[in-house]
Amino acid sequence: MFYKLLIAVLLSMVFVGCSKTTVVLLDSGKSENAILVANEEGETKLDQVGSYVDIDKKKTGKVKSMSQDEIKSRFSKALAATPKEPITYILYFEPNSTMLTGASEGTLKKALKSIEERTPCEVDIIGHTDTIGSSSVNVIVSLKRAKYIESVVRKSGVKMLALRAKGYGEEDLLVQTADEVAEAKNRNVEIFIK
Amino acid sequence: MKKILLWLAMGNLLFASVGIVKTTTGTVEVKRDKKVIFLKQGSSLENADIIMTKSKSSIGVIFGDGTRISLGENAIFVIKKFKVDPSKKEYDVDLDLKQGKAVFSSGKVGKLAPESVKFRIPEGIIGIRGTKFAVEVK
């Protein structure tokens, strides 16, 4: 479920000869995956994995398809250097409390282990709310919860390049809802390991 | 103590890190304020940084929202601006590949504000579409 928080567009490019660029849409593992390539001539949409265009300033070529083998050989060095996807852990609290649920205590332990394995890494502790109430108040409420978890992570002594608490309020919902909808899953703290 | 805290806060504003280096091979440099600095695993990156890879070199970078960029050899890549702040709903991502090969994978900005991402190439601009839009269609 937490992978939905991350998205999903990969592309790559190469210059062939002078001032000509190739843009390829790569497999992101998600269904929502599209890019627009714009030049003076107009826009070209790429929404199929492996689809690509060659463009120069005035002219965009037709959309063609590049095989996985060709992508791998043309972009091998850049692909090999791609960092791993960030890891997300979601923590839930007992109702009206700063106590983590039993399951989330276990999740927190797993997260600390992941941080050690990812070193050197930066870690964001991000508070989220549901859409009940004003969005500015929700930012403050979510930051409070995040700061509590930040203090727990800091006390653990696990080494990181940076640890930051953030409150996103209702801006980055785990479960999409309309405004003013109570949704327990959206009241959480996310450990975002980069 | 208060003075120290203030100084630290100002330091954060002046030298705001927008991302970190996760991997390098060979020689990778950054041009920052007319100085050229070698990049290594764990180095911080800032707005206006110009990243340059030499031959047989590569770099992998992760930004604050989880967006990832990797560059192959002989690449020149400019972080014109990287701002993704959901708590203030401020989004402005402006990247520029001048030369070489790159692989880009969007982070939270791709879900929250894909239209705010500009990936420049000499011939034009690449924009990200789809993710947020698709959620609305559902």
UniProtKB/TrEMBL annotation, chain A:
<dbReference type="InterPro" id="IPR036737">
    <property type="entry name" value="OmpA-like_sf"/>
</dbReference>
<keyword id="KW-0732">Signal</keyword>
<dbReference type="InterPro" id="IPR006665">
    <property type="entry name" value="OmpA-like"/>
</dbReference>
<dbReference type="InterPro" id="IPR050330">
    <property type="entry name" value="Bact_OuterMem_StrucFunc"/>
</dbReference>
<dbReference type="GO" id="GO:0016020">
    <property type="term" value="C:membrane"/>
</dbReference>
<keyword id="KW-0472">Membrane</keyword>
<feature type="domain" description="OmpA-like">
    <location>
        <begin position="80"/>
        <end position="194"/>
    </location>
</feature>
<dbReference type="Pfam" id="PF00691">
    <property type="entry name" value="OmpA"/>
</dbReference>
<feature type="signal peptide">
    <location>
        <begin position="1"/>
        <end position="21"/>
    </location>
</feature>
<protein>
    <recommendedName>
        <fullName>OmpA-like domain-containing protein</fullName>
    </recommendedName>
</protein>
Automatic annotation (TrEMBL), chain B:
<dbReference type="InterPro" id="IPR006860">
    <property type="entry name" value="FecR"/>
</dbReference>
<feature type="domain" description="FecR protein">
    <location>
        <begin position="50"/>
        <end position="136"/>
    </location>
</feature>
<dbReference type="Pfam" id="PF04773">
    <property type="entry name" value="FecR"/>
</dbReference>
<keyword id="KW-0732">Signal</keyword>
<feature type="signal peptide">
    <location>
        <begin position="1"/>
        <end position="18"/>
    </location>
</feature>
<protein>
    <recommendedName>
        <fullName>FecR protein domain-containing protein</fullName>
    </recommendedName>
</protein>
